[in-house]
Every structure is written in C-alpha cells, then in structure tokens.
Amino acid sequence: MKNLKFIMPLVLASVSAPVFAGHAEDDWPEPVKPYRTGQVLFDRLEVTRTDNDESLIVWDMLAWYGGDRNRIYFKSEGENQKDDGEPTELESAEVLASRLITPFWELQGGIGTRGSLASGANRENYFVISLFGVAPYRFEMDNSITINEDGDIAASVEAEYDLRLSQVSYLQPRLEIAAALTDAEDYGRPSGFNDVRVGLRYRYELAREFAPYIGAYWSRSLGDKADQIRADGGDESETGVVVGVRMWF
C-alpha cells in the first residue's frame, strides 16, 4: 500500500506531462531559422611615422559571409611607403573557407598571395591553414601556417586584447610573431624566428562602427634574418607612431 502511494503520483505525472507539454507548445515562439549575414572590418587603417622618417599607409582588414558554423573569409594586410617611388607591398591576401569547431574557434583553410603589387612582379602564392578565434581571457588570435608553391613552410601568430577603459574607450596591446620552418631564400625568409612586433593603441569609439585611435609600436628582425639585414647595411629594428581608425560595416 505504501509503495502504491509513491507509484500513483509518478504514473499521473507521466500521463499528464504530454497534455501540459502540448498546451505549452501553443505559446512557444517559433525556432530561430538559420540565416546568413556578413561583415567588413578594417581592424587597422592607419598612417605610420617611423624613427627613420618614413611615412607609411597600412591596412589590416577582413570580410566574411556565412552562418554560425560555416563562413567564407577574405583577409588582407599591406602597406605603402609614401614618396619612395615603390609600389604597394601586399603582406597577404587570402580567401578562406571556415568551419566553427568549438564555441570560440574556427578552423580555416584556403589560398593566398603576397608580394609587390608592381606589374609583372613575382608574387608568392601559397596554401594556408588558420586557427582563428578567442583564447581564454579574451585574447583575439589568428594563428596560421602557409606552404608555398616551392614547399616552403612559414608560420605566424597574431594576438591582441581589448582592455576596456570606459564604455567607449579601449587600450589594445598587440603582438605579432613570424617564423619559417624551412629556408625561403627567394623571399628573404631564413628558417627560424624572423620577426617580432609589439604595439599599443588607444581607441575611442565615436560610434560602434567608427573608432579613431593613436598608438606606437616596436618591431625587430631576429636570427639569420637580422644578420642578413645588418650585412646589407640596414637596421634590424624599428619604432613608430600611428594614427588611424578602426571601422566596420
């Protein structure tokens, strides 16, 4: 008899659950339908003045289109030195297919090119694999490995962090490291660590989509690359100040 007292409520609950569930479903909102959207982001669009009295125009942008899991990306970085008579230098231009593999990381793969934009220039074409996302403590990262047509392998790490100072202002430290796993003499990339660059920018949002900034950076070539630059009479390190804008639409 005692067992029956415990069993009967369970039986009644199991019988009535579909009834109440069916009634609740009438008031539930419709599920959100999958949709595609996109964005164009200029993370850096700036004018740089170096300690060698050089003026540069620098860009770092990405554009994407797709859904929550699958997207197509276009990334591009480059610079142009004013009044030097040389064409724009394209650091990278990549088209990538992306797949969300964890809540904060995308695995990307595609093709890219880099080099001078001069007519007839011999640019370096390559295949690229990237791990793109947000590391713990909200470090935004873009880690990539490239393999060019000659089988030369290079790697790069880019990390930045937005330290919120107020509702509309941020301090952003940034780190870039470039390395090569194999010698690529045709492109001035000896094996080992090649370059490191550290920057700091202060950004103020006039609107969410438009934020001017000022900042400074320090960069240095390393290892065999630094030796090559010194042998050619160049300077293996550089500092500079920047004025620019971060914008998206």
TrEMBL record:
GO terms for biological process: intracellular copper ion homeostasis. Residues 1-21 form the signal peptide. It comes from the Bacteria. SUPFAM superfamilies: Autotransporter (SSF103515). One of its GO terms (molecular function) is copper ion binding. It holds the Pfam family CopB. Keywords: Signal. InterPro entries: Autotransporte_beta_dom_sf (IPR036709), Cu-R_B_prcur (IPR007939). The keyword Zinc does not apply. The keyword Nucleus does not apply. GO terms for cellular component: cell outer membrane. This is Copper resistance protein B. It comes from Alcanivorax hongdengensis A-11-3.
